[in-house]
Target: KDP operon transcriptional regulatory protein KdpE
Amino acid sequence: MPVNITFPGARAPTADRPLLGLTVLLVEDSRFACEAMRLLCLRSGARIRRADSLHNARRHLRGYRPDAVIVDLGLPDGSGIELILELAQATPRIDMLLATSGDPDGEAPARAAGADGFLAKPIGRLGEFQQALLAHVPPDRRPGGLGCLPVGEEVHPDPVAFRDDLALAAQLMRHGRSDERVMAYLAQFLAGVAKAAGDTKLCAAAEALSVARQGGAAGPAFDRLAALVEGRLAAPAAL
Model:
């Protein structure tokens, strides 16, 4: 049976670390997005674990009960909406259930499935992240002095995490050109990763693949996207 690992008597949150004592399970397939969230949690005082798929999230949740679960809507083995529905209907319910996506159209279905809130990607501003979570924290666990939250402060994930995401995409692309499900996943995955990394050309190519898939002629768009991914991996890594 899952147990809550937020211990009584833990240090109280402060204005500098307003999420101190909070435990977070992030269900996220992107290493780059996960690294950003890790830095946000570290800076805020929260503890974080990551699951990169629905399967691994369910495995985590069989072992412990976090205070908050943040679920990406696009996952390699299905939609995050599935997990949100399960957790929203579970007894006892997770205290804080949030959805996240680079597609703003995901907010309405996530809330309809039972999500308490929605985090639009890219998530990089510390104050915005803290406010989004504190909005769902019980009043007796909120710190004083919230007016001092660092609204404009940003975190900057390690570029190596971006390359890790590209390497995963490249591996899938080598075997998934004829698999419609893999192609759909790659289009949304790379669009989100590229948007978070500020790579506008890669983001546009991923979005073009999504459009081409709807028209039934995705081959050329897929090849252009694959070439961009391989080109970025072939370039020297930034030191």
Q: What stands out?
A: The chain has two domains: 23-148, 159-234. Confidence is low (pLDDT under 50) at residues 1-9.
